[in-house]
Amino acid sequence: MAIKLIVGLGNPGKDYQSHRHNVGFWFCDALADLYAASFKKDTKFFGHTTHITIGGLSVRLLKPTTFMNRSGQSIQALAKFYQLNASELLIVHDELDLDPGTARLKVEGGHGGHNGLRDTIKALGTQSFYRLRLGIGHPGDKSQVADYVLHAPNKNELTQINNAMIDALQVIEDVIKGNIDKAMNHLHTTE
Q1: Annotation marks residue 21 as catalytic
Q2: Which of 13, 66, 163, 186 is deepest in the core (most CB within 10 A)?
Q3: Catalytic: which of 19, 21, 48, 93?
Q4: SS3 50
Q5: Are the C-beta atoms of residues 131 and 89 closer than 8 Å to each other?
Q6: Which domains, and CATH codes, for the chain?
Q7: What single DSSP character describes residue 123?
Q8: What are φ and ψ of residue 6, in 5° steps?
Q9: What share of residues in the chain are helix, strand, coil (percent, to 5)?
């Protein structure tokens, strides 16, 4: 099945834009730039949206303006309006369990403690959506996670995260067209 909506998870506002938790926003911004699209605020979807065409297929991009733990409100509003199934969604988010420089696709699954995914699963009533997981690394101790994700990566980590996004952008057309296995094979064997 083709992907019709790509959602980047993050927190709105200038105070958060450089934080690790916002790599989903960064990816959507890079994708919009690649296809010469501009985001516009859309209050009925509680977010910034744009529309692009990838490989001849129409795709909407969404960056919720709700905070991370309320991401599902925005995603549900847009998905319901356009009558999209959860299986037509790709959620792009930061992943503590992957090192910076790593991008992985995942089909379904739990939230793994990620509040944006937790709220999305709750709002959609299912875990059956695609995820693009962009590694940010782990601070080493669970008690440091909240502070870690709400700070900017160092220069080396940022370079690695950007490289992972470039890798993911190289397979996005396959993802959109539903060639998930092909995209996963390429992305998961890239070193």
Answers
A1: yes
A2: 66
A3: 21
A4: strand
A5: no
A6: 5-20+29-184 (3.40.50.1470)
A7: H
A8: -115, 125
A9: 45, 20, 35
Burial status of residue 125 (CB atoms within 10 A of its CB: 0-12, 13-18, 19 or more): exposed
Polymer length of the chain: 191
Q: Could you tell me if 23 and 94 are in contact, meaning their C-beta atoms sit under 8 angstroms apart?
A: yes
Residue 162 burial by CB count (10 A; 0-12/13-18/19+): exposed, middle or buried?
middle
Q: Which two tokens stand for residue 29?
A: 């911004």
Rounded Cα distance between 16 and 84, Å, is: 29
Is the sign of the CA dihedral 27, 32, 38, 39 positive or negative?
negative
Q: What is the pTM of this model?
A: 0.95
